[in-house]
Prior knowledge:
heterotrimer, B: alpha/beta, Rossmann fold, 6-stranded mixed sheet, about 30% strand, globular, C: mainly alpha, about 0% strand
Amino acid sequence: MNKASYRSLVVALMQRDFKVAMRRKSDSINPLLFVLMVVTLFPIAVGPSHEVLGRIAPGVIWVVALLASLLGSERLFRDDYLDGSLEQMVLSPAPLELLALAKISSHWLLSGLPLVILSPFCALLLKLPIEGWLTLMLTLLLGTPILSAMTAIGAALTVSLGRGGALLSLLLLPLFIPLLIFATAAVDSSLLGMPAIGQLLFLAGFMVLTLTLAPLAVAAAIKVSVN
Amino acid sequence: MALLVTAQQLSSVRAGRTLFADLSFSVSAGAVLHVEGPNGAGKSTLLRIIAGLLKPQAGQVQLFPQHSADDPDYWRRQLLFIGHKAAVKAELTALENLAIQAQLDGADLDDPWQTLETVGLLGLEDIPAQQLSAGQQRRIALARLWSSPAQLWILDEPFTALDTRGIELLQQRFAAHVHGGGSIILTSHQALSWQPSALQRLSIKHVDAELGYE
Amino acid sequence: MWRWLHPYAKGEASYHLLGRWLPWLTASALLVLLIGIGWGLVFAPPDYQQGDSYRIIFIHVPSAMLSMGTYTGMAIAALVALVWQIRTAEWSIAAIAPVGAVLTFISLLTGAAWGKPMWGTWWEWDARMTSQLILLFLYLGVLALYHAFSDNRTGAKAASILALVGVVNIPIIHFSVYWWNSLHQGATITKFAKPSMPPEMYIPLFVCIFGFMLMTAAFITQRLRHEILRQELHRPWVQQLLVGAKVKEQ
């Protein structure tokens, strides 16, 4: 296989995932509804005052985003594993790392990007001051690819277990801590009227590092899981 | 005759139980290897080991030994594996499944309609696979045999869920493949009605295995 | 080096080799720990600021240091297991992870016990405490994944991959947590940044650290022996070993 056919394979694999997602819309929509509902719970639980909500909004939105990404992550490789497509990916002439990157990309487009688009509504509901909105969206834009890549590692490791849910959270949540720290700190400094570029650059660095190394881990994990 | 597979002293232990030990055989171009044995004897495990999905406990498998060893790209293109799980996406139509299968195989799907007609799925191409019968889904998976460029086929129970017409069709395809210098390793509980000229039978019984030629 | 190591990839050879090391490791660990802890708790002078409560460092510091080192050791074993497919390396993950988790837990527990007189609270979101807590979660994740699979081989490989993912992340987590802490807490921890420690204190501390290393090595050795026996139970050499043990009893 040459480079051109690798590229068309990646495109075909992503198109396949989109078609499957379009035909089972609830799988993509439910995590987003989950985000909206949890965000609604906070004003009810802590009271609707501007100061409290605005103060905790960046943290709440990010924690909810982490939980939502875990919610859908179990399914990332589950269907491919059950119907045998994962075996065929391992045996395909194309490098498995590339196919893993294709899966990560389509997962991000289907779950991460909608979250970025949804975030202004969450910011509105949680009364996040307007100065923080752009930074919040930027942190989600840089952070959700990391979420997709890391959940792909966890999902590939646990796909053959059939009941990975709670285990997956145990494996992944500690690894999300740097992301949570820098993302919320970026929004906080915007709220204080300070530049957030430093934190955003750190997030961008994490993203590049994760997207470079995660496909290797995902490919290794898939090979372990299909046997 | 060119050898496509050589296996030396393969042993497999699954969950503390020895499935087979010291299994050696080879498959040359144009030959058919029929792996036989009772349920749970390790037929599927053996096929997965040959395909490279599983590592044997001991022994080794060499694919295309006459070809340079450090070219995984070559043997992946020359090997086609269809296991118990058919790799058919339930949400996609037959046509879409065929397209993605060909992409993964590195095959050129010149005329998908022709392939659909051959496997008897014409007219059903725009229905999601989950609404088709088990036999029709199996046909989608087996359609790869008409487009794949692979020389070595490894098929785990290919006749499952097929009707008599389908079984006959598949055996015709097998004959054509073997005639063109391809090889097939398969498991089947059904006796083949077609008699290839170079048929080897490998029966796996528990622990000890015997190799018989016909 | 690999030619030398290779025979020990087999269970039986490693079992006997580890068996020869074990008594020496145990004896020296006991001796060194006895000296170090006795020296630290009884003979070292009290701190002019913290009185006797500082003496917890003779357990806290070695366990905290080794909890990190043990994770690195586990990650190296994981790399060896994945690259060279050596089964003893796979099993050593199961041997190392619980020891590392317990060390991390001890460091958290002693940290909390130290925090009570120093900060007036059992738990402070101090950078060191927080990153130790996250380290504990990472250990628990590796352990949970190792034991989640019915097929041990798969579990070991999956846990190896996770351990490597973890070891890449640990420096990042560590750095982020320290940065986060400086952001939120400012100067509260600086009073513990002790610029110097008199030799009467740090020499017993080094002895304790060395003793903890030996103890950790002894525990891992013994656990690895058990894991080898557990995994190779159906092999003839283990059966013979068991029969031999029964004969001796009678």
